[in-house]
Amino acid sequence: MSVQTFQVFHVRKWIRSALIVIFPLIVGALSGWLTKNNTVIYEVQLKPPFAPPGFIFPIVWSILYLLMGISALLILKQGYQKPYVKDAMNYFWIQLFLNFLWPIVFFNFKAPLFAFLILLTMWIFIGICAAKFYRINHTAGWLLVPVWIWTTFAGYLNLGFWLLNR
Questions:
Q1: 149 phi and psi, to 5 degrees?
Q2: Residue 45 has what DSSP assignment?
Q3: How far is residue 50 from each of residues 27, 102, 139, 159, measured CA to CA in Å?
Q4: Is residue 100 within 8 Å of residue 30, measured between CB atoms?
């Protein structure tokens, strides 16, 4: 392999890795963009105790989406063709889709109870995904723990929001 071929291969591999890491951020940004005109309900309705100000959420979720991307990259480096990697990644894709869907249901459709059920399902899939990732790569599994913890807190907020404003 020539030096030029090696460099092109290395650059492509780096770009692919970067895309894997930022893909969850893109999903989160798209979801945020789709809900940007409807998030005012969080500010004007009753919230449960310990509810942070609305500006905190994009910051925290951006960090969490980065952790998801790094975690996925660590798993995909094991080889997507391996059945256990495909299985773990299926849980990852499902939780990411639910993560995309939740704010749309909560803010755009103004359906906090249905959003809570999505969040609960997402919480289960994140937990399973973290466990499956941990079996493949301990770091990848641990990187999903903050996502799981924050989703637990988001579930508390979502349920409290529904109970206080129905």
A1: -65, -45
A2: S
A3: 27, 21, 30, 13
A4: yes
CA distance 91 to 126: 7
Instruction: Give the Cα separation of 80 and 139 in Å (integer).
Output: 18
Contact between 114 and 103 under an 8 Å Cβ cutoff? The reply is: no
Encode pLDDT of 35-71 as tens digits: 999 999 899 999 999 999 999 999 999 999 999 999 9
Nearest to 91 by CA among 133, 63, 120: 133
3-state helix, strand, coil split of the chain in percent (to 5) is: 85, 0, 15
**Any idea which residue has 């960090």 for tokens?**
63
3 pLDDT band, cuts 50/70/90, is: low
Average pLDDT over residues 126-148: 98
Q: What is the CA radius of gyration of the chain?
A: 18
User: What confidence score (pLDDT) does residue 5 get?
Assistant: 59
Task: Decide: helix, strand or coil at residue 106.
Answer: helix
Beta strands in the chain (DSSP E): none
d(Cα 57, Cα 158) in Å, to the nearest integer?
13
